[in-house]
Design goal:
CATH superfamily of chain B: Immunoglobulins
Largest sheet of chain A: 7 strands, mixed
Number of domains of chain A: 1
Radius of gyration of chain A: 13 Å
Oligomer: heterodimer
Order of helices and strands of chain B: EEEEEEEEEEE
Strand content of chain B: over 45%
Structural class of chain B: mainly beta
Number of helices of chain B: 0
Distance between the termini of chain A: 35 Å
Distance between the termini of chain B: 41 Å
Order of helices and strands of chain A: EEEEEEEEEEE
Largest sheet of chain B: 6 strands, mixed
CATH class of chain A: Mainly Beta
CATH architecture of chain A: Sandwich
Shape of chain A: globular
Number of helices of chain A: 0
Largest interface: A-B, 24 and 22 residues
Strand content of chain A: over 45%
Number of domains of chain B: 1
Helix content of chain B: under 10%
Helix content of chain A: under 10%
Chain lengths: 112, 112
């Protein structure tokens, strides 16, 4: 009963490097989301996906790329990491007919 | 765009005292959700309110949705150390109801 899993849990990288954060859910939820959490800002939506091959920008999409070739996976890529992208990243999923979101354990990313 | 605000940002209470956090939206909401995040953890769904003036209880937690559906509150009676964490409210950001805008959260500390 894994539910929704994120990997890695912790990541340290350097400015300019490409980083991919993984998210996998076993519920066959239609919707998947990526948030970043920073002190004082709560949870801010980066990208979301309503179904496989359908993605859309959230509040803070700049510097991030997503894809969703399969329903269960929703990777988030930082094409060229910057220090301002140091944050905790949460992936979430939700069913088509309910709006409850189920969050993964998060990835703590540090960009040096 | 839609904004969701919460007050207070932080609250320190003695164990056994009551606690209330308030959530205000810049727009009328079709529903509102509350999530709890324990320190070092991930947000976990608590409840969803849909009707104007709705009040729901979960043991010592009482949730209320305002008559105008622009505000909400969470009240905890006789706090316990297990109540420690950050409480977020979230409102739909679009008509589809699957994307939510999260408030910045209220961080609750309970002193034993």
């Amino acid at each position: 009963d894994a539910g929704i899993t994120q990997s890695p849990r912790y990541k340290i990288t350097e400015t300019g490097r490409q980083v991919t954060l993984m998210c996998h859910q076993t519920w066959s939820h239609s919707y998947m989301f990526w948030y970043r959490q920073d002190l004082g800002h709560g949870l801010r939506l980066i990208y979301y996906s309503a179904a496989a091959d359908i993605t859309d920008k959230g509040e803070v999409p700049d510097g991030y790329v997503v894809s969703r070739s399969k329903t269960e996976n929703f990777p988030l890529t930082l094409e060229s990491a910057t220090r301002s992208q140091t944050s905790v990243y949460f992936c979430a999923s939700g069913g088509q007919w309910e709006s409850i979101q189920y969050f993964g354990a998060g990835t703590r990313l540090s960009v040096l | 765009g839609q904004q969701v605000m919460q007050i207070p940002q932080y609250q320190h209470v003695q164990e056994g005292e009551d606690f209330t956090t308030y959530c205000n939206s810049s727009t009328t909401l079709s529903n509102i959700q509350w999530y709890k995040q324990r320190p070092g953890g991930h947000p976990v769904f608590l409840i969803q309110l849909v009707k104007s003036g709705e009040v729901k209880k979960q043991k010592r937690l009482t949730f209320q949705f305002g008559e105008a559906k622009k505000n909400s509150s969470l009240h905890i009676t006789a706090t316990q150390t297990t109540d420690v964490g950050t409480y977020f409210c979230a409102g739909p950001s679009d008509n589809y109801g699957q994307n939510f805008v999260f408030g910045p959260g209220t961080r609750l500390s309970v002193l034993p």
